[in-house]
Amino acid sequence: KYGRTFNFSAGPAMMPEPVLEEIAAEVMNYRGSGMSVMEMSHRSKVYQTIIDETEADLRKLMGIPDNYKVLFVQGGGTLQFAMVPMNLMKNGVACYVETGSWSKKAIAEARKYGEVKVVASSADKNFTYVPDCSDLDIPDNADYVYICENETINGTTYTSLPNTKGKILVSDQSSMFLSRPCNVSDYGLIWAGVQKNVGPAGMAVVIVREDLIRDDLADYVPTYMKYKTHADSGSMYNTPNCWAIYCCGKVFKYLMDMGGLEAMNQRNIEKAQVLYDFLDSSKLFKGTVEKEYRSLMNIPFTTGDKEMDADVVAATKAAGYDNLKGHKSVGALRASTYNAMPKEGVEALVDFLSKYEAEHT
Ligand code: PMP
């Protein structure tokens, strides 16, 4: 109806069409306020209602316990690589699991603030699996154990959470946020950049247990980078990313209307299965991740031939399937199938790939 393509981007990514329609309908005059949310003071009553509802809906959707704070922080996902160690490294020691590009970035950033112990890694097989985290060597003075729960570039996800031996678990859920149910109390802190599964880029949602929010941080820690600053001000210490918060709120309501996170998980399983089944039976294409650790959100695959991979990317784009090129660091192809990608999109892509296969084998 709008001439939209099936956009398989890893992020910013598709948003649900009914949400975009609602946003479009409100863009000139938000519910009789006489202005767009883009033009609205964050200190206005009408905006306060938006942010309050957004937080309340997320709490409902995920079942976030009362002793956790929900923060909306700018700086995207990347700022959290720094904020986590700045705020949580009390003894100056943290354990990280290395599963791919985004955990490597987190490790590099944390090393600026303290000692980082890489307690498990899948580097030996090019990050195509998630290492066994059932018996990690975690020092007594470790402040936390950090994971990237879904590696966007490598396409892996955890099948069970690490045994942290009583230490706090910190998780980067950026590329799987709200794709399935999550037991928040298993974590000390969850954070997610929102531009994959939720809304526009430029913001992270941080869910942090209250007792981990410290007021004894070193003086040089920038005000904006203390979780306490955001917790004490209801994410309104300065002008927040009002627009992103508003759009995320729309998506939270949409997910509740769709039946919540269990329903989304079922849909995501069925949707990813369509592509994985094809890859497993194809003579031309194959998935690059060990079956057990395959992500439902990011599906990397290849023909095994660089030139042919590039040809497939060009052919899919010409046919209306956009952004299937793998990340520049790994190449090949990748289909991201977040919450908003309809199953029909994946079915149509598989149809196209089967035809391509028939013509090229
Ligand atoms: N973590 C993960 C898992 C990601 O996929 C990304 C972005 N692709 C980031 C962190 C960084 O997010 P941002 O670009 O918003 O800084």
**What spatial order of strands do you see in the largest sheet?**
2-10-9-8-5-3-4
Number of helices: 9
How do the SSEs run, as a string of H and E? EHHEHEHEEEEEEEHHHEEHEEH
Q: How many strands, which pairing sense, and closed or not: the largest β-sheet?
A: 7 strands, mixed
CATH superfamily of the largest domain, by name, is Type I PLP-dependent aspartate aminotransferase-like (Major domain)
Rg, nearest Å: 21 Å
β-strand percent reads: 15-25%
Catalytic activity: 4-(phosphooxy)-L-threonine + 2-oxoglutarate = (R)-3-hydroxy-2-oxo-4-phosphooxybutanoate + L-glutamate; O-phospho-L-serine + 2-oxoglutarate = 3-phosphooxypyruvate + L-glutamate
Pathway: Amino-acid biosynthesis; L-serine biosynthesis; L-serine from 3-phospho-D-glycerate: step 2/3
Binding site for L-glutamate: 43
Protein name: Phosphoserine aminotransferase
Short précis:
Homodimer. The protein is built from nine helices and 14 strands.
